[in-house]
Structures are given as C-alpha cells and as structure tokens.
Amino acid sequence: MGSGLLSLLLSAEISRTRVELQQTRDSYAAAILLEQQKAAKPVTRKYTVTYDISYRGEVLADKTEFANLVRETLSSPNGWVRAGVTFKEVSSGGRLHMVLATGDQVRAAAPGGCSDTLSCTVKPYVLINDTRWRLATDSYNNAGQSLKKYRQMVINHEVGHFLGHNHLTNCVNGVAPVMLQQSTGLRGCTANEWPLGSELWVSGL
Ligand SMILES: [Zn+2]
Known about the structure:
With 205 residues, the chain is an alpha/beta fold. It has one domain: Collagenase (Catalytic Domain) (3-Layer(aba) Sandwich), CATH 3.40.390. It is 40% helix and 14% strand. It is built from 6 helices and 5 strands, in the order H-E-H-E-E-H-E-E-H-H-H. A 5-stranded mixed sheet has the order 2-1-3-5-4. It is globular. The chain binds zinc ion. The site of zinc ion has 4 residues, from helix 6.
C-alpha cells in the first residue's frame, strides 16, 4: 500500500471518528432538549417571586459576576420561568434571598442541615457556597462540564428547593433532573442545568 493511500485512509478514519463524536454529542444535546421540552402538564398558574441578592462572609468570588449570572439564570426561558414563575429583582426585602456565602456561613444558616462544603436552601434563603461557586465540584469537573453550567445548575437546583422540590435520584432518559444532587455525583446521568419537563411544577408558594 502506498503511503499516500494509507494517509488518505487514516484521514478518512479520523474524520469518521470526528463525525461519530459529534453525533454522540448531538444526540446527548437532543436528549437533554427533548426532556427539557416535555411538560408533564400545561402550566396554568403564574407566580411572581421577588428576590434580592446579598453576600455573607468574606466571599472571594466576583460579586458582580454572581449577581449577573443569578439574573441571567432566573430570567432564562430555559429555567423555572417555564413552570410559570416570574422572578423580579428588588434591592432588598425580596420573598427570596439569593446569597453568596462562605462555607461557614452556609453551615451557620442551619447547623446540622447545611454543610460548609455545599450550597443549601433554608427558606427564604438560597445560600450558594462561595468555594463551590468558584471551583465547581469533582462530578462536573471530571465530566468536562463548564463552570458556567455548574453555576447555573446550582442556582436552579437550590431555587428548585425554594419552589418546593425535593431531591430526585434517577436519570430521566439518561439526563440528570436538575433536582438530582449533581454536585455529589452524576449517577451515570448526563449533566443538566435546567429543570426537565417533568420538574415544571411549584408547590407551597
Ligand atoms: Zn438539594
């Protein structure tokens, strides 16, 4: 076999592998999209939730970046908006308090219920752990997920608790529900930062 033919075959093989990889990525993306788009039932009730943003402890993260991503995530058409919730920012006195906090401050919000290593919701406070916010978790980092995706997942997960959701433990068609504890492990599911169609409900508001 001439070396010209060999390199031609090799490059054909490489591009075929690339196509397969892209197809795998596309099918993951399609599966996530499909699960996100499925609504368990039509959303008829509308809720408006005022929220404010604050900080506890000597947080090291960029506060403006935190505030901006909270705004972006809560108003995203992919988020809890799809469950009929409109989030409206106020400077203080919100019904929901979005807090970026150091680990010791997270734990202090509910000793025994919250740990200093993870984020935690103690209604009406959503406490995002400053360390996790800056560094994400092994589960996300090892799966090659972006920091932004982790941050949006943790915002949506904790706000999900505020909206009355408890944890889920199983993938839905291979995709992690936002209420699965993705920070501690993906349990074989594809990482996902948005509520799935089956999670589009609100209770106790
Ligand atoms: Zn949780």
